[in-house]
Amino acid sequence: MKPTLIVLAAGMGSRYGRLKQLDPFGPAGETLIEYSVYDAIRAGFGKVVFVIRKSLEATFAEEIFAKLAGHIRVEYVFQELEYLPEGFSVPAGRVKPWGTGQAVLLAGAEVNEPFAVINGDDFYGAESFRGLAAFLAGTDPAAADYAVVGYPLRNTLSDFGTVARAVCEVDAGGWLRGMRELTSIGRTAAGIGYRDAGGAEVPLTGEETVSMNMMGFTPSLFAHCRVHFEAFLREQGNDPKAEFYLPLLVNGLVREGKARVKVLPTTATWFGVTYLEDRPLVVEKIAALTASGAYPPRLWK
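The line above is the sequence of Glutamate synthase [NADPH] large chain; the predicted structure tokens follow.
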């Protein structure tokens, strides 16, 4: 059974200033999504499920789905504000969907096999897909044994502003103890650090293992996701800015002893476009990978 790739592509890209998921970066106008799907195909994934906004259906069909036809099976689901479990409604003042946890729950309608989850606006590297595919291939589809790909923090920063990262605490056996979300991480005169809730600067080594939202699961996740999402809605549903994040769900399952999560360290190249100023560097990095032979000048023929 080949694993499925879920691509989270319903984000609005507020800091970037435009829709990152469909921005061209490759020499033939390829998006970052296309490089991820290309690497997933080479790693043995058999299907890709996109989570998008309904208003972008025609655009994705023309600019992404048409290119992938004949290369991999494509399905898609919509993430909308009003797509909630029975008994819940959208509170006044809410204008955006409910986060990555809701997105994955909605994708479950098209997934019955082990699967990976990635962001649609990040470049993860071929090695990461191979490692995650190997993990999923060796996992009991009924088990709650999951995985998160871990990158060194220093390889995930932007030169043009601060970032938020989920720092992984890992035990001696390589299993996740928990993830701690740190915000305002960036390079400082003294190295790398972040500001805590009180505004104090806290140093980091840069070698901390961080999750970039590249994770692997079995279908057992969906039942857990629904339970936790409903609990989130009861507790925080009236907060117009609260979001149900996938790392928070994973943390909760680990803490409750309902899942084990293996951390898969990778040396693969990661890069992304948090800010518009990041774009030229991403184009340059893809051009270098293409020149090295890691990718063809045109992904789809």
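Note on the example: The helical segments are 32-43, 57-68, 100-107, 126-137, 221-236, 246-256, 279-291. DSSP finds seven helices and 13 strands in the chain.
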